[in-house]
């Protein structure tokens, strides 16, 4: 059995509604005012947490190290160093963002991208750590995060089964007691066809942990379907308006969409229920509207029952339709008025 995980008093697990994370990423567009507005909007939409990314361009790469040439990339032609300078969240913004989230009763945490970021986030008393897909093979970083003793949420994008297994082992051996893996496809945006949600229950059994979805598809359909497959955590990029631009805006949810995700993912979770056959208590009154056998014409005692004088109609106050053929050819023992439900005492 997969146990619940407690994140700053929030219970996350199969017996609780999905834990919804709004990923701010670089959608603040280098404005603290906008960053705080994103927190406000995420809280109003019903998200459980806001997530940041803690790095600088210098902790990620070097100037001139790489330029993106992929024709299908949103960032084609951008040099990595410049892209990270545009996307990073200034470290001095973390505290006011964390504080604003707390004012709303919402959690705030981050993905550290090097060991200095972990030290910084520990000073902010981050309640949980997120390992991004491209860092899931950085074993020194994994050990540093695990040593905090905090719960860890790790994305599994762009990683082999063996690499994920190694990461899980490293985290556990370094002290991580509470771990959630996120199925993730590291393309931006992702397509439904390369999302492969059926991996979620398989991954849960393979690693013995809770599994969620870090979703880069458009809309909320994939995320809601993931909940039906047992996902306990959903992470989606979030912005105020995609039209405002920003490095991740093209595949980010807007506030109305995030609220839809919160509502519909909880509905999916509630709808899963348990294996159930038979008539539920809530359905008992509805049985009235099943069909049964009725007199379709006035019938005199001694008349033979035929297809013309008896019919199967609603409601279900008479003999069940399965007895219709048995009734045909029998003789009425009493006068029966049209519209009367049949009982065995009438034949």
UniProtKB/TrEMBL annotation:
Domain of life: Bacteria
GO molecular function, one term: transferase activity
AFP-like domain mapped to chain residues: 292-347
Top EC group: transferase
SMART domains from the UniProt entry: SAF
InterPro entries: AFP_Neu5c_C_sf (IPR036732), Aldolase_TIM (IPR013785), PseI-like (IPR051690), PseI/NeuA/B-like_N (IPR013132), Pseudaminic_synth_PseI (IPR020030), SAF (IPR013974), SAF_AFP_Neu5Ac (IPR006190), SAF_PseI/NeuA/NeuB (IPR057736)
Its EC number(s): 2.5.1.97
Protein name: Pseudaminic acid synthase
Organism: Pontibacter populi
Gene (name only): pseI
């Amino acid at each position: 059995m997969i146990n619940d995980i407690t994140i700053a008093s929030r219970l996350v697990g199969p017996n609780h509604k999905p834990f919804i994370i709004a990923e701010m990423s670089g959608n603040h567009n280098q404005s603290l005012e906008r960053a705080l507005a994103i927190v406000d909007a995420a809280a109003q939409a019903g998200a459980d947490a806001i997530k940041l990314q803690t790095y600088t361009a210098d902790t990620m790469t070097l100037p001139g190290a790489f330029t993106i040439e992929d024709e299908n990339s949103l960032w084609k032609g951008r040099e990595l160093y410049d892209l990270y300078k545009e996307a990073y969240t200034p470290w001095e913004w973390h505290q006011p963002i964390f504080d604003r989230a707390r004012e709303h009763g919402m959690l705030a945490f981050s993905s550290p991208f090097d060991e200095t970021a972990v030290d910084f986030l520990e000073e902010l008393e981050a309640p949980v750590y997120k390992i991004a897909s491209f860092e899931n093979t950085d074993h020194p970083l994994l050990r540093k995060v695990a040593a905090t003793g905090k719960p860890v949420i790790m994305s599994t994008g762009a990683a082999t089964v063996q690499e994920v297994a190694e990461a899980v082992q490293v985290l556990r051996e370094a002290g991580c007691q509470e771990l959630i893996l996120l199925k993730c496809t590291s393309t931006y945006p992702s397509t439904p066809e390369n999302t492969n949600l059926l991996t979620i229950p398989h991954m849960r059994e393979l690693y013995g942990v809770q599994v969620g979805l870090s979703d880069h598809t458009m809309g909320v359909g994939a995320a809601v379907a993931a909940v039906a497959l047992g996902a306990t955590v959903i992470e989606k990029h979030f912005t105020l308006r995609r039209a405002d631009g920003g490095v991740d805006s093209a595949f980010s949810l807007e506030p109305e969409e995030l609220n839809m995700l919160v509502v519909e993912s909880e509905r999916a979770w509630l709808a899963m229920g348990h294996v159930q056959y038979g008539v539920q208590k809530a359905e008992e009154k509805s049985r009235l509207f099943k069909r049964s056998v009725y007199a379709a014409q006035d019938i005199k005692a001694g008349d033979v029952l035929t297809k013309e004088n008896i019919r199967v109609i609603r409601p279900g106050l008479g003999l069940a339709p399965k007895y219709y053929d048995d009734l045909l050819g029998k003789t009425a023992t009493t006068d029966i008025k049209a519209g009367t439900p049949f009982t065995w005492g009438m034949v």
